[in-house]
Every structure is written in C-alpha cells, then in structure tokens.
C-alpha cells in the first residue's frame, strides 16, 4: 500500500531516540525532560483517594469545576489577571494536546505562522496538519533573544499567528518585560493571534515569573498553555490546560472535544486539591529547581564544557567545542554510548541549524544523579 504521508519529513522524535539509546547503554539520562524523583506524597494520596472514591468516569469536557476554579485562583495569585473559570479555562491531555488543538482551531490552509527557532518539535507538524505554513526566525545567539524588528518585518498578509515559548525550551532563556510588551504591540498592530507555551512558567531563576497573562492587550488575543506535568513532577499524567478569551476558548473546545474530549478524571481532582491545599509548592518551584541547576553547575566545574546561562526551565545548554568537532547529533550518540551520559542536540530544534556545537542537559534529577553525570562528563 502506498501512503501519501501528511508528515513526510517527520520520524521518531529525538527525545524517544535518545531515551532509548540511554536505556540501551545504561547511561545517565539527562536528555528527555522528566524528573527521576517522586511526586508529592500528598498529591499521590489524593489521586488514590479520588480513584477509590469512584471518580473514574468522564469528567466534563472542559475540566472538573473544582480544578478550573483553582486554576483561576492561581492565575490571580501569580499574575493579577482575573479569568472566568467557566468560559476561559479548558483542561487538556497534556500541553502538547493543548498546543495542537489551539493550532487546529484557528489555522486554515494558506495561513502562515511565525515560529522562533530553536522551536519545540510539536509546533510545525501541528501547523502543517492544519494546512498552514511556517516562517521560522532564529533567536539571536549567544543570548537567544528575539529580534522584534526582524519579526515585525517578516509579517506577511497571510500571517495569522505567532507562537512563543517562555521560559524557553531548549535554550533556557526567558522573555523580559520589554519582550512581552513588544509582542503585545506587534500582535495588536498586525491583528495577530498568539499561542504562548508557558509550561515552565513557575520554573524561573533570579527573576519574577512573567506571562502573557500580565498584559491585557496580549491576553485578549492569546491561547496560554500550561502544564501540571512540569509543575508537579508528573509528566506521565499528561494533564495541561489552555486559558483563552471566551471566543477563542469556544473554538478551542470545538476541536478538543473530538481529540480527547476529556482528561484523566481522578488526577484532575487530585491537582485541584494540590492547588487548594499546597499552593505554596507552586510558588516554591523556582527555588526548588534553582538548587538543582546550581548543583549541576557546581558539579561541572573543571569540565571542558562551557555551560550557558539558564534563566528558567529545567535545562542548561552546554558548548562542547573544546571537546569535539563532531556535529551535535553524532556527539550526543557518542556521549551516550562511550561516556554514559545522554543529552539532546540543539540542532534538531531548528529548521536551518546554525554553525554551533551545543547540547542540552536536563537537571530535573536527584542531586546524586547530577553529581554522578558530572563526574563522567569531567573525564572528557
């Protein structure tokens, strides 16, 4: 059978490839972004409580009311924005689903979308499946900051949407206040919609959390996507949500109901309890991961890797130019097979990779895991 693929250039994601390679070689996995430590005992107890209490059937399509109300309260606490839990918040089966649904809701054949490279690998396939095209513009190294003049100059008559991600995976940078204001200005001036991927919103270092939620003119035209998997160390629960104005949420829900319809019911109740009773853990998340970042940076002192600044997420970039002339994909394979540490190559996040030798390490691990990985890397 001959199949005319809708995604002819898409294969298995680099995250699956590197994690499988790490398992095969018994390497320390600092590639795929997931914790190797347990979630909150309270959260797990509440999951068990709600599952055994019989809350195992379909939840409402837009999410259980208790969780939507808790999310609205959290947004108010963090950003001072009042959102309507009934009309503006929709639960999804992970942030990836929410991003996909938002794209399908608004992109039609012939629409163009601005992406900022390096970009997370789920963005462009969603746009392609909706019949859209991508204009990919590179963040400016070594600080990986957006060039807003270049972005504005790249807007075409068919530009419909700009997708942004802050704190940014994979570069571990974060938008400044001026970045958010420039995005707000450009989106308003050119009547663009925005998808703001904020799955690492609570994991920022040496700075205040920021979001599209803080900017009223931006919030009124934006899908803000967040993730409980990242916030509560339960990536396997695949529970995220999208906040958008009522008109955008209505379109989002039209698609969402035919993709997953609803999401893991007992987990929704458990997370609602967590946000109600243990909200301080959300506010402490930045400091929690900053300690892990600093542990890894300290452990890597004396290595020949040059670690780049990490302002947020649970990643840090490392330049290996002093160690090898291999391209980053081959180097990550060599690092995993021969030295027992798995990383992610930066080039896979680009349409046209720049000339650089940079890999991404994940520090969402136990401190001993980070120390052991650094000990191996320092032998190079």
Structural features, described:
β3, α5 (123-129) and β4 (133-138) form a beta-alpha-beta unit. The protein folds into 2 domains: 14-32 and 284-377, Alpha-Beta Complex (Aspartate Aminotransferase, domain 1), CATH 3.90.1150; 57-278, Aspartate Aminotransferase, domain 2. Helix content is 40%, strand content 15%. The protein has a 7-stranded mixed beta sheet with strand order 2-8-7-6-5-3-4, with helices on both faces. The radius of gyration is 20 Å and the shape is globular. The chain is of the alpha/beta class. It has 15 helices and 13 strands. It has helices at 14-24, 41-52, 65-79, 95-106, 123-129, 148-153, 177-189, 216-219, 228-231, 246-256, 265-277, 279-283, 285-299, 328-339, 367-377, and strands at 28-29, 89-92, 112-117, 133-138, 159-165, 193-197, 222-227, 240-243, 306-307, 315-319, 341-342, 344-345, 358-362.
In short:
This is Methionine aminotransferase. The chain is α/β, with parallel strands linked by helices and 380 residues long.
Instruction: Give the overall pLDDT as a whole number.
Output: 97
CATH class of the largest domain: Alpha Beta
Q: Determine the strand fraction and express it as a percent band.
A: 5-15%
* Rg, nearest Å: 20 Å
Number of strands: 13
How far the N terminus sits from the C terminus, by CA atoms, comes to 49 Å
- Count of distinct structural domains: 2
